[in-house]
Amino acid sequence: MSLFVPMNLTCPECTEVFTSEAVGSVNADRRADLRDEILAGRFQIMRCSACAHEFRLEPDFNYLDVGRSQWIAALPARALRDHLEIAAEKQAVFDLSYGSQAPAAAQSVGQGLQQRLVFGWPALREKLVLAENGLDDVIWEVAKLDLLRSLPEAPLGEGVELRLMGVSGDLLDLAWIRAESEEHLNDFQVERGLYDGILAAPAPWAAVQALLGASMFVDIQKLFMGTGEDAA
Ligand SMILES: [Zn+2]
């Protein structure tokens, strides 16, 4: 089931404190509308009861879509630095819910689920776009690395991410986005062949592919974070 909990929020514009419903979990099989809202970039946008200012809560919930084989732990963008620790925590959550420590019926559901961990709305949305278009996320992250080699001016840095926004025929719609504010720094397209080429001949990428797929946090961001323990 999808779960919402009342939460006291403070308006960043006028500091009014009001109560609204923050999401605790999303079941996209039963609530397709919530998945639609995530794709539309509208999910968890709150409106201040005093001044009508709109602001978005950071994601902090589990997302389940059995139909598309997705289980995703979504966390705030700023939590990225703690990805190693959080991946271990979320793996334990999954194991209890659908994995080795879950009841048999839940385990049978869990066997078909791809487990993922994301930080920030753009990263979550990208996982939904990939599934929607039948694209493998590990191969896609490898394709990003390949693309970065030919983009010397890439603004990649902490909090700035390259995300797939959609697929338009033979073109992939990409954007450089600030993860926390969701501000787009640059939107552009590349040919889908970037992805298809790696899918067809992944051998040269085997090592980095294994690294990216080694945990539920499948994202090139982790390659630029060091171990996650010594970052200042
Ligand atoms: Zn307000």
Question: Can you describe this structure?
Answer:
With 232 residues, the chain is of the alpha+beta class. The protein folds into 2 domains: 57 residues, no CATH class; 167 residues, no CATH class. The chain is 31% helix and 29% strand. It has a 5-stranded mixed β-sheet, sandwiched between helices. A hairpin with a 4-residue loop joins β5 and β6. α5 packs across α6. The structure holds zinc ion. Zinc ion binds next to loops.
Structural class: alpha+beta
Which descriptor suits the 3D outline?
globular
Give the helix level as a range of percent.
25-40%
User: What is the domain total for the residues?
Assistant: 2
> What ions, cofactors and ligands are bound?
zinc ion
Q: Number of DSSP strands? A: 10
H/E topology pattern = EEHEEEEHHEHHEEEHH
The fraction of residues in strands falls at: 25-35%
Report low-confidence residues grouped into runs of 5 or more.
227-232
In spatial order, strands of the major sheet run 1-2-5-6-7
Question: Mind telling me the C-alpha Rg?
Answer: 18 Å
